[in-house]
Amino acid sequence: MQAATKSIGKSLADFQAGLRERDQSFEGHIRADYAGRWTGAALRAALGVRTTLVLALQEYLVEAGLVNIDRVSLSPVTDPLCHDVEHAPVISYKGVPYRTTHSMIYGKMLACMNPGIAGIFVDSPNIRLELAAKDGAQRGKYLVDFSQMDVEFRRERRIGEEMYFDEPETVARLLELELDRALGFFEGMIRHAVSRLLEKRQRELATLGVRLEPPASPFPRYDKDEAMAEAGGDERRLEEHLGRRSGSQFFWITGLVRENYDLVYPYLRREGKRSPGPVSSREVYNYDLCAKALRSDGSEGKAFEVLSGGLREWVYPAIVERLLDNGIIAARPRFTEEGGLENMEELEGYGPFLAAARLRGPEGLPLFPETAGGGLGIERCLYALLNGPAVRRIEDVTLFGKNPDSAPLYLF
């Protein structure tokens, strides 16, 4: 249950009273925590890097044939996330509660339903009420309100439901090819962005005390289960551990058991669900791209995940089972012969998405697309590449960054 909140005016008054107890003025706080950053050389340089980064990403995606789509900020459903957040904020409009989006994952997949669209991209808004670090440490990963370059594209090899159930070895080989294609696509995007930054932003990089090197493909890839064994089983330090040994500014971690929409294969069989027990990372077709800072003094920063994505579940029965097994929906959808949903209320906001995922075209084939994709966090990527002598916290690359580890109340 969400706790009752005070008015914003009362919250600000209490915040100011707390400052006075520490012999600080409200204006002094704004000067120190905001205006000092806004007027500094470091933020000016970081925003220059951001501008070129975002433009380069868009250049690459347009050249690849993807189309830009509208943002989704409010929806009946949003990405449920595999890590803890306080709650998904709800906004009531015309008497209907809508969730603010953690990400556009369901919208991205549905946007690829048109067979004439090769893929989509959108600089999407994301609101995630991240929990503050229990020990008060600066984790460098999280913002409450951030931007993400969301990308989704149709896979090249169509795999029908019959093949899904009857030809598992063939399907696994095809999925490996699609995974290679997806990783190669995003590596090309990163290489293009780095080349533009080296061409346009050498002065800004020098101001921030960091450097970039043109990355060579393929980037190092680490299977999650194998890497965990090497890291002593501590998943929280996996990115940091692999960053030290990778020898590359960018590297992949694959096979992370995560969200309901990330493909696990085989998940269903003709006779029913897969055997219970842990899922091997070799059966999970997803990926995290990690990056670290290379500093002018020769040192390196800690590696952070900057892009998360995967091949997506596409067979309707598997989509339903994953939602059930992950506890996202409480019951199996029950459709009438006329296409109505008998238990719409029980499904919360997932009724419309499941109805769309179940649709078939005139030839009886599913309309729901077979896709892969990913989301690159703009501020997270900037922090990963730029942290060093001038960029100490993730909000140092933003004007209005809301770091859950930095402040109990955000003023702008």
Quickly describe the structure:
By secondary structure, this protein is of the alpha+beta class.
Features:
single chain, 412 residues, alpha+beta, 8-stranded mixed sheet, 15 strands
Supply the helix-strand structural class. alpha+beta
Distance between the termini: 27 Å
Q: Which word captures the global form?
A: globular
The low-pLDDT segments are none
What is the helix fraction of residues, given as a range? 25-40%
Structure summary, number of beta strands = 15
Order of helices and strands: HHHEEEEHEEHHHEEHHEEEEEEHHEH
The strands making up the biggest β-sheet line up spatially as 1-5-6-15-14-12-9-8
- Based on CA atoms alone, the radius of gyration comes out at 23 Å
SS element count, helices: 12
Describe the main β-sheet briefly.
8 strands, mixed
Instruction: Provide mean pLDDT, rounded.
Output: 94
Strand content: 15-25%
Give a verbal description of the structure.
The protein has 412 residues and is an alpha+beta fold. It is built from 12 helices and 15 strands. The chain has helices spanning 8-21, 26-38, 41-63, 105-111, 161-166, 168-200, 202-208, 224-230, 238-245, 316-325, 351-358, 378-386, and strands spanning 67-68, 74-75, 90-93, 96-100, 119-127, 145-154, 210-211, 221-223, 250-254, 268-269, 272-273, 286-291, 294-295, 304-311, 371-377. The strands form 4 sheets. It has an 8-stranded mixed sheet with strand order 1-5-6-15-14-12-9-8, with helices on both faces. Strand 10 (268-269) and strand 11 (272-273) form a beta hairpin. Helix 3 (41-63) crosses helix 6 (168-200), helix 3 (41-63) crosses helix 7 and helix 3 crosses helix 12. It is globular. The two termini are 27 Å apart.
